[in-house]
Amino acid sequence: MSVQTHIPATAMASRPAAGIHGTKMVARDVKVFYGAKQALKGINLEIQENRVMALIGPSGCGKSTFLRCLNRMNDTIENCRVEGLIALDGEDVYGKNIDAVQLRARVGMVFQKPNPFPKSIYDNIAYGPRIHGIASHRDEMDEIVQTSLKRAGLWNEVKDRLREPGTGLSGGQQQRLCIARAIAVSPEVILMDEPCSALDPIATAHIEELIDELRENYTIVIVTHNMQQAARVSQKTAFFHLGDMVECDDTEEIFTNPRDERTQGYITGRYG
Ligand SMILES: Nc1ncnc2c1ncn2[C@@H]1O[C@H](COP(=O)(O)OP(=O)(O)OP(=O)(O)O)[C@@H](O)[C@H]1O
Hints:
By secondary structure, the protein is α/β, with parallel strands linked by helices. Helices cover 33% and strands 25% of the residues. The strands form two sheets. A six-stranded mixed sheet has the order 6-7-8-3-9-10, sandwiched between helices. A four-stranded antiparallel sheet has the order 2-1-4-5, covered by helices on one side. A hairpin with a 2-residue loop joins β9 (236-241) and β10 (244-250). The radius of gyration is 19 Å and the shape is globular. The two termini are 21 Å apart. The chain binds adenosine-5'-triphosphate (ATP). Adenosine-5'-triphosphate binds at residues 34, 39, 57, 59-65, 77. The site of adenosine-5'-triphosphate (ATP) has 11 residues, from α1.
């Protein structure tokens, strides 16, 4: 089946992923309930290392719920129950020996709305390394702050005002500050829940370029409503529908040759 979508071929992620990509995270038969209501119906998914996976699907299909399973953010939601297996490097993240705070340093998160702490730019980045005891000297912390801001593509814009409040930056800069904050604790996986939905097109383009660069060092899972964005930034795409993961494949395949008619309906704009 070949499908006519409204996504131009040129919008597809320009740099194909090189090399062999191991499995970083695995979901097996993951079910999530909010009280009596079932939000995910048994999700199976493999997330490959150093790649970007996009989660797409109509509103309310469970994308954010699934994303939050990956670093146990659902633990913080009252009434929410998770069943099944989520593994990081083969280890059950819901296992008895796993500390959720340590897990969230390994699997960081960037939210829809930039949410810098009401602190200086420097302290926004230094906060995580401080609580995790990552830096023992001031020089070491300076180095982490600088490297994190460089990796997030923000250093040149803020290097002369590190003591100014993070909340004084533009929306796009604030989101890059939040990405730098996530990077500062050396995560292996970065989860992004619609990270550009509050940003203008220029700031969005900046974040998309950044995502493409970041996958050299991190594994990224991004929830997006914007299918052009999914096509531009990801190598793998998973389509969710009514609590099911309908199909997951190479992004190009999902957007040009989907196997399921629900995916086809969504990407051609028939519903969603
Ligand atoms: N805290 C909660 N309490 C109760 N129900 C919830 C909660 N969070 C989500 N849900 C429900 O779970 C289902 C999945 O929601 P979720 O936010 O994961 O979907 P989504 O695909 O991310 O949606 P959107 O694209 O609109 O953000 C929805 O029916 C939603 O109403």
